[in-house]
Amino acid sequence: MRLELMGPPGAGKGTQARRLSGARGVPHISTGDMFREHVRKATPLGRKAQAYLDRGELIPDSVVADMVAQRLAAEDCQAGYLLDGFPRTPEQVRALDAILARHGWQRSAVLLLEVPEAEVVARIANRRVCAGCGAVGRAPRAGTAPDPCTACGGRLEQRADDREEVVRERLKVYREETAPLLAIYRQRQLLVEIDGVGTEAEVFGRLQSALDRVAA
Q: Please, where are the H alpha helices in the chain?
């Protein structure tokens, strides 16, 4: 299956993408992780991206699309993949269209995890990240001392971009950027909307059921 996963920050895309990847036997391609790996390894595309960052400029869609094209050409993607974080703009949708056309592929579905804004704000504002290993935890209950990281015992901290006012601004940007993509995919009858509220297992079950219907 050739899938794309969309949803607001805090919708649980990364967690569900990893579960779906294992269940469906396709690689989970997080474009954020892929981008950081290119920069870390100083690949030609990573150096090109870093040059834009060093000048304080946004990385052009063409550079991001080139990274995705290179990844989708890998052997493990020939039978399918799950894209997480791309495309994010209409221009990137068109770039992905061109990549798929070169391979003779078609999208199976575009999965949208829907979570109300109040739920997203509560999830992210309560998130804490270990300063030592990066593991994710939760804020302590009112009046209790913070628990240490369960992975390494380190200190759990709130990231600057997880503060409520920042989260609301991120959601505003998400709505503005995503609306045109949703219109494109609805018109193509590719969009599958999934209720993202509930336990991890409940949401995963809904995703699995939706994909079973797509594959039928």
A: 13-24, 31-41, 44-54, 61-72, 90-103, 117-125, 164-187, 200-215
Over residues 126-160, the pLDDT tens digits come to: 888 888 888 888 888 777 877 888 889 899 998 88
Alpha carbon 57 to its chain centroid, in Å, reads 22
Catalytically active residues, by annotation: 13, 88, 127, 159, 170
Token pair 């990066």 in the structure block, residue: 134
Give the distance, in angstroms, between the CA of residue 211 and the centroid of all CA atoms in the same chain.
18
Give 170's contacts (C-beta < 8 A, 6+ positions apart).
9, 161
- For strands 28-30 and 191-195, give the pairing: unpaired
Examine the pLDDT at 81 and tell me if it is beyond 90.
yes
Which tokens is 26 given? Answer: 């396709």
